[in-house]
Amino acid sequence: MLFAVLAALVAGITLACFALLLPACVGLDRVRSVVADRDRLRRRLRVAAPYVGGLAVVLLLNKGLLDRIEAFSRRHGLRPTEWFYAVEGDFVATLQATLPDWGLYYFGPMYVFGYVVVLVFPFVAYLFASNPRPLKTLVAAYAVNYAVAIVCYGAVLAYGPRNYHRLPGADPDAARVEAPLLEAFPEVTRLTARVNVETNVFPSLHTALSVTVLLVAVSTHEEFPRWTPVAGLLAGSIVVATMYLGTHWATDVIAGAALAAGSVAVARRIVSRTGRRDAW
């Protein structure tokens, strides 16, 4: 019941954000011109369908193998959590101490609601682009991100900074990293546990996918100039939120950003090789 309420809340807030972003970043005239022509809209959906289908397969694999990936990682995975702390020390704890306590009420919603908006809105916005390349690139990059993450989460068993102090070999002098979102709203774990486990830390997929959206948004700035700064604000806030909330190390964030850059580069190559044309 609680999960249904949380899911409904996320859906409601996402739709409300769409109601604001579509006219502001895409334009109602552009939307109406495509929606009014049913054949034109169907063509666009057909062009996107193979890419969306490929992403769906990767997501289903990720969800279906979640428990097996975790089990494999526990048996065979590298365990670099202590190394992460040795490299960056108390950076995350310092970040938490530097930002004000009310930051929870900004970064918490960004981590949960902003993340959904930044991932889903471009799907809709790029349906109204002048050519299918941005949508194809975005969806293909999502698939690459998830595919690489599946491998990484199987190969690496890592814990976030909020769990570091629980590890047997943890530095006793390490500053404690809090988990403000989970402490203030423990029911959030019911939602996140459906799609993730606490050892899926390296790389940060929140970072990877958010930065992916930003990189594609930059490439479409000429056509959607208002979306670029919005994507930048959302992506930047989500990246900081992953550390402020104690979920990820800075190392995870850097790896996530690198994954985003690589995924977009691979996606562009895929689109260039498989796309017969750039118009729809």
Short overview:
This is Phosphatase PAP2 family protein. With 280 residues, the chain is an all-alpha fold.
Structural commentary:
Helix content is 72%, strand content 0%. The protein has 280 residues and is an all-alpha fold.
Which class best fits the helix and strand makeup? Answer: mainly alpha
CA-based gyration radius: 20 Å
Amino- and carboxy-terminal Cα gap: 43 Å
Task: Name the average pLDDT.
Answer: 91
Helix tally equals: 13
**Helical residue percent?**
over 70%
Beta-strand segment tally:
0
Oligomer: single chain
Subcellular location: Membrane
InterPro entries: Aur1/Ipt1 (IPR026841), IPC_Synthase-Related (IPR052185), PAP2/HPO (IPR000326), PAP2/HPO_sf (IPR036938)
Protein name: Phosphatase PAP2 family protein
Domain Phosphatidic acid phosphatase type 2/haloperoxidase: 143-268
Keywords:
single chain; mainly alpha; 0% strand; globular
SSE topology:
Layout: H1 2-26, H2 28-36, H3 38-64, H4 66-76, H5 81-88, H6 91-98, H7 104-125, H8 133-155, H9 180-184, H10 188-192, H11 205-219, H12 227-244, H13 250-274
Helix pairs in contact: 1-2, 1-7, 3-8, 4-8, 7-11, 7-12, 8-11, 8-13, 11-12, 11-13
Pfam family, one: PAP2_3
InterPro entries: Aur1/Ipt1 (IPR026841), IPC_Synthase-Related (IPR052185), PAP2/HPO (IPR000326), PAP2/HPO_sf (IPR036938)
Domain Phosphatidic acid phosphatase type 2/haloperoxidase: 143-268
